[in-house]
Design a protein that fits this description.
Layout: H1 15-18, H2 20-31, H3 56-69, E1 89-94, H4 99-106, H5 114-124, E2 136-143, H6 146-154, H7 161-187, E3 192-193, E4 204-206, E5 210-212, H8 217-223, E6 227-229, E7 235-237, E8 243-250, H9 278-282, E9 288-289, E10 293-294, H10 296-314
Antiparallel strand pairs: 1-2, 2-8, 3-8, 4-5, 6-7, 9-10
Helix pairs in contact: 6-7
This protein binds iron/sulfur cluster (2 copies).
């Protein structure tokens, strides 16, 4: 992504034509285009000479510091410079964890294993790919701010302005932060790659699972023990389901720090036999039902149709919704009746 010129004192004009970064983001998400070239591996680097080898603590502190201090963690007009995200959660999963083969069955054979994406990066740099047990995945959750959640909880048909800005600016920020980390590690001689900014990243409609991408931050976050799935398919974490997610693959052995529940729905009231379905009541197109859970196609149609609304009212090129992730018991944390089962 290029550097975005943020709306400061007034709204952008004709965002359908002028919000170039928004358009690039949308095409990138669907077609894997317009991403900057991957940083090159510094094959001369001696890892130890560049300081201690980054460990779990280094990744946690680096990601937290970046979210806290990054100049791009700021909204546009009329909320100029309000933070987009609160303090993140970070988790790790081993590159050879059997869950990645299971994801090929659950999501589809197109979903990359960490080794497959790392092999692509190794080939780009003319080096031998590391073994699967020599790589790890770093996953992080960026919780939305109280203001954004409040505004979206008050919306009933279309995403709030803060939500729409978060959807676009938060994605650009996430890609920027990961790119900075990947560049730093590659400069130290450590192979690293962010799958969602490679040319292989493109969303498609698959017969079994509907719209899906070849690298699901959500499933990776579950694998790293950061949360479990709700009825609306959002990941319910200890900071709730109103967030954005990021992840990347690195040629280092990092130990998981969170225990992954076996039950992929451990933090959803409905799936745990308790009365809820508040997310279903929040959906303006009835895409969530007790019988069929989340209808991804109906959801997709609604989300895609918001592009016009967001351009007309918020003057940014983005689509979104997230009504079912706000104003619900799992919005900002694991619903209290289920907290006992929270395991770290
Ligand atoms: S609102 Fe209730 S039913 Fe829906 S995902 Fe959250 S906990 Fe589950
Ligand atoms: S994100 Fe999808 S499922 Fe959720 S409220 Fe919007 S249309 Fe409904």
């Amino acid at each position: 992504m290029g550097k975005r010129k943020r709306m400061n004192g007034r709204y952008r004009r004709f965002s359908f034509l002028s919000d170039i970064e928004g358009m690039k983001n949308a095409i990138g998400e669907m077609r894997g285009k317009f991403f900057p070239n991957q940083p090159a591996l510094n094959q001369e680097a001696k890892i130890m000479a560049a300081g201690p080898v980054p460990d779990e603590e280094w990744f946690m502190q680096t990601i937290k510091n970046k979210i806290a201090t990054h100049p791009d963690n700021g909204m546009e007009y009329p909320f100029f410079d309000e933070p987009i995200f609160d303090e993140p959660l970070v988790g790790f999963v081993a590159g050879d964890d059997p869950i990645f083969n299971q994801l090929k069955e659950i999501i589809g054979p197109h979903h990359f294993t960490p080794w497959e994406i790392m092999a692509w990066q190794a080939k780009n740099n003319g080096v031998t790919p590391p073994k699967p047990d020599e790589i790890s995945v770093v996953s992080f959750v960026m919780p939305l701010t109280r203001n954004t959640k409040r505004d979206n909880a008050a919306a009933g048909e279309w995403p709030s302005e803060r939500w729409a800005q978060t959807r676009l600016l938060g994605e650009i920020l996430s890609q920027t932060i990961v790119r900075e980390i990947v560049t730093d590690l590659m400069e130290r001689g450590i192979l690293c790659v962010s799958p969602d900014v490679t040319p292989m990243f493109n969303k498609k409609r698959y017969p079994e699972v509907g719209w899906a991408s070849p690298w699901s931050h959500r499933h990776v976050a579950y694998a790293a023990g950061l949360g479990t799935f709700g009825m609306q398919d959002f990941l319910i974490t200890e900071k709730g389901c109103a967030h954005r997610l990021g992840s990347f693959v690195v040629n280092l052995k990092l130990s998981p720090i969170r225990k992954r529940p076996d039950d992929i729905h451990a933090y959803c009231l409905h799936y745990q036999g308790q009365k809820c379905l508040k997310c279903a009541k929040r959906c303006p197109v009835n895409a969530i039902t007790a019988e069929n859970a989340h209808d991804k196609e109906a959801c997709y149609q609604k989300v895609a149709s918001s592009l016009k609304y967001c351009n007309k009212h918020y003057h940014i090129f983005i689509y979104g919704c997230g009504l079912c992730a706000t104003g619900v018991p799992c919005e900002s944390g694991i619903p209290s009746p289920l907290k006992r089962s929270e395991q770290k």
